Amino acid sequence: MRRAAFLVVAALSLGLLTPVIAGATQFKGAVAYWGPILVNVAGNRVTSITGHTGALTCASGTSVGPVEMALARPVSIHQGRFQASGVGKTEGWKTPTSWDLTGSVSIHRTISGTVSATAQLPTGEICKGTFPFEAVVAPRAAESPRTSMYQTREPSAAQVRFDYRHGVITHLVVVAPVICPDTSDFTAELDSVSYSLDPIQVNRDRFRLAADVLDDYGVVMHISMTGTIKGREARGAISASRGEDIRGHVQKCAMHGSWASEMPAAAPTPPPAPTSGAFYDVTPYRYGSTGGWTYYLMVQPTSCDGGIVAIRFSVAGGTKTVWCGSSAKLGPLTPQRNYHLDAVAVRRNGSGVPLAASNVYIPGDDGNWVPVK
Description:
The chain has about 375 residues and is an all-beta fold. It has 3 domains: about 25-135, Lipocalin, CATH 2.40.128; about 150-260, Lipocalin (Beta Barrel), CATH 2.40.128; about 280-360, Immunoglobulin-like, CATH 2.60.40. Helices cover about 0% and strands about 60% of the residues. The strands form 5 sheets. Strands 1, 2, 3, 4, 5, 6, 7, 8, 9, 10 and 11 form an 11-stranded antiparallel sheet that branches. A 5-stranded antiparallel sheet has the order 12-20-19-18-17, with no helix packed on it. The two termini are about 15 Å apart. Residues about 1-20 have low confidence and may be disordered.
């Protein structure tokens, strides 16, 4: 369940964690909400950083262009945090400029932090700047099909289309705009295939998700939505937000509204959804202390109804039944690996209702176990 990372972003619910490769992973985002940055991570090391800082402010009140950043050698990640530094050049003056970056890799596969730079111009003037940055696991080139079972119905605060079969949503595409206080606007597209989202479980016609994605300018946008599917129609609430730097002042650009989708008149009516079901939350968990951590997946059944009393989880060859309203640890498990988690909702009579599976990455020292959001 992702916090998309494609984020993210929000408490994990079924189908929202980004499955990622435990080896080399590229994070993509922006510095100061406009300058691109790429961060490559392999195991417990940041292997490369490329990008630009924001413009530096000089003592006289003038500014010099952004500083080019390139990491000369890998740096270690410790407890999910890392520091990097180097010497780049400012645009225009081409003055050698030192930069320092501090970042945090959350267990939900986002990187955030700050980057600072200081330059001394040939005139002797000192110029400085400190800027926020944020990045998510870069989306794949693969995309959802161009046609969908449910298509956007106007009026709608965001364009939402998806396929819905066997109680789960797949091929979800959300195009979400945000408006800034200065009236500028930005748009991001969440494609469940590009961002490797798990199928999204629908429980008694309802679903929810949260994800972090990149907008048209490569800036991380946070999207959360809820929805209800009733026959040929679907609707719900959606929110989106991202920051924008206006002359050194960060303002919040946001959208909150209602979305609506429907099946075309010529399309066949979808089969009835299961009359019972549940959601579950799953998040990586560790117990112990430095040098002696034990790693688990923490699971918690939520929103059980229609006679569902528990969820049976299966991962890495083990199975555990967890009662609704309680939580449990699955494991111990080996960190820095992806795990496939199967789930079956259990009725009072013992029969089962399959739920959508999840692919979950358990970080080791490469994850910041204190949530960064």
